[in-house]
Amino acid sequence: MTWKTKYRSFYYKEAPEPANIVFKVDETALLVIDVQETYLAPSSKVEEQQRWKPFLERMNKTVIPNTATLLQTCRSREIEVLFARIACLKEDGRDRSISQKKPGWNYLLMPRESKESQLVPELAPVGDEIVLCKTTDSAVTGTNLRLILHNMGIRNVIVAGIFTDQCISSTVRSLADESFDVIVVEDCCAAGTDELHDKELEIINMIYCHVVSLKEVKTFLTK
């Protein structure tokens, strides 16, 4: 099964196969979302360690190594590379959106200079690669990403990062609404569980983006 037939939702079960993807490298950007220190730090609670163990294994064994390979591929083809990370500008976080102020797991108070808000070292930016700070799920809504992409002549966006069902999904939907062509690299992304990951990919595929594998991405890039 290839990207043309995988991750089909109820709405697209009988839809014809999409056309081949062709991304011109000078019109394409890679956006890596929220692969930050806070999400890779083990919990001090044994129960939480067990609950998040599958996620951490996927991140360390699949998502981070694959994203490092994707970064290398894009840099070697001179594709623009950008990063987004959750980080507030005010120490008390009063500039955060309401979704990051609500109590519970999604309560996020990470000033931009804090260690937990930093990108993981394996996926560190190189040279003048752009890093955007956001206090929203969508990297489009919470930053000037749309303007940056348009100014650089970008029409296509390759998306990787976390969490598939939250910031990835929100960003992809926003990009689609802005008429960018988007692909999500499924083995460079993760959600809290594989079930959530797979279900969200099924939901956004074919309408907001195309869901593809790392191996497939390399076949889409052209001069």
Features of the shown structure:
223 residues; 6 helices; single chain; alpha/beta; Rossmann fold
> Which range does the strand content fall in?
15-25%
Order of helices and strands: EEHHEEHEHEHEHE
Overall pLDDT score: 95
Assembly type: single chain
Q: Largest sheet at a glance?
A: 6 strands, parallel
Q: What is the CATH third-level topology name?
A: Rossmann fold
Give the uncertain stretches in residue-range form.
none
CATH class: Alpha Beta
Number of helices: 6
Please give the alpha-carbon distance between the first and last residues: 27 Å
In total, how many domains does the architecture comprise?
1
Q: Please tell me the CATH architecture by its name.
A: 3-Layer(aba) Sandwich
Question: Which class do the helix and strand fractions yield?
Answer: alpha/beta
- How many strand units? 8
Explain what you see.
It is a single chain. The chain is of the alpha/beta class. It has one domain (23-222): Isochorismatase-like (Rossmann fold), CATH 3.40.50. It has helices spanning 37-40, 46-76, 145-151, 164-177, 194-204, 214-217; strands spanning 23-24, 28-33, 80-86, 130-134, 156-162, 181-190, 210-212, 221-222. The two termini are 27 Å apart.
